[in-house]
């Protein structure tokens, strides 16, 4: 039996809650490769640089060691043979004028190393912290196991010399006058036929003399000399 229209039941479809919503289009999953870190290249560069530096240091050290064993370098020896004063006086302007003559013996003990003494070497005489005079060292070649005598003429003028002269006269009464000789000479070392770059020989001699009277024999009572190379 048919039901009247107002008694008809409408059945609506029930949505499936478990069913996922429809997709408009399936998205493709893209795999992005990881970016290279910036410091990776820097690390490789640093490693290469340090390796090259280390190899160079090893090579240089080996060469220096071989040269040392082959040539066996030694520092030259120097001695002050005599010190003569030809003039030491006060001028009218109260400056102190000094003229010394110093004789030095230089000895090169090396068997395979020669030394070129270049121009520009200076020798000076000091009393306490006052420079009395200075002169130029001669330029020459110092051969293997060779002794060379040097005669150096030194002159100088010191302002306000009256005070310095009084101190020298007072010190002379004791018979022991301390003087200091300072030397600086540019040299070039010759290894076989190879001439190396210039270095400096720096020297200092502490002397004790009995007198500073001009034109008189002066006795050197004590002498202590030290020398070193400066690159």
TrEMBL record:
It is found in: Membrane. GO terms for biological process: defense response to other organism. It comes from the Eukaryota. Keywords: Membrane, Transmembrane, Transmembrane helix. GO terms for cellular component: plasma membrane. The chain crosses the membrane at residues 45-71. Residues 104-187 form the Late embryogenesis abundant protein LEA-2 subgroup domain. It is a single-pass membrane protein. The keyword Transmembrane helix applies. Its main location: membrane. This is NDR1/HIN1-like protein 6. It comes from Momordica charantia. The gene is LOC111010204.
């Amino acid at each position: 039996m048919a039901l009247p229209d107002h008694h008809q039941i409408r059945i609506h479809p029930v949505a499936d809650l478990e069913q996922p919503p429809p997709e408009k289009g399936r998205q493709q999953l893209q795999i992005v490769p990881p970016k290279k870190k910036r410091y990776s290249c820097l690390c490789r560069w640093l490693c290469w640089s340090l390796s090259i530096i280390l190899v160079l240091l090893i090579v240089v050290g080996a060469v220096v060691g071989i040269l040392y064993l082959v040539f066996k370098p030694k520092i030259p020896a120097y001695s002050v043979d005599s010190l003569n004063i030809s003039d030491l006086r006060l001028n009218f302007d109260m400056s102190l004028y000094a003229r010394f003559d110093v004789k030095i013996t230089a000895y090169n003990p090396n068997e395979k190393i020669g030394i070129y003494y270049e121009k520009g070497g200076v020798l000076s005489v000091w009393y306490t912290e006052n420079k009395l005079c200075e002169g130029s060292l001669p330029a020459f070649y110092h051969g293997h196991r060779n002794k060379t005598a040097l005669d150096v003429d030194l002159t100088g003028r010191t302002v306000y010399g009256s005070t310095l002269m009084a101190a020298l006269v007072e010190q002379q009464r004791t018979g022991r006058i301390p003087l200091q000789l300072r030397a600086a000479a540019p040299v070039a070392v010759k290894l076989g036929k190879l001439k190396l770059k210039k270095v400096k020989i720096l020297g200092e001699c502490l002397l004790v003399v009995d007198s500073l009277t001009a034109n008189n024999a002066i006795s050197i009572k004590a002498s202590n000399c030290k020398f070193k190379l400066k690159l």
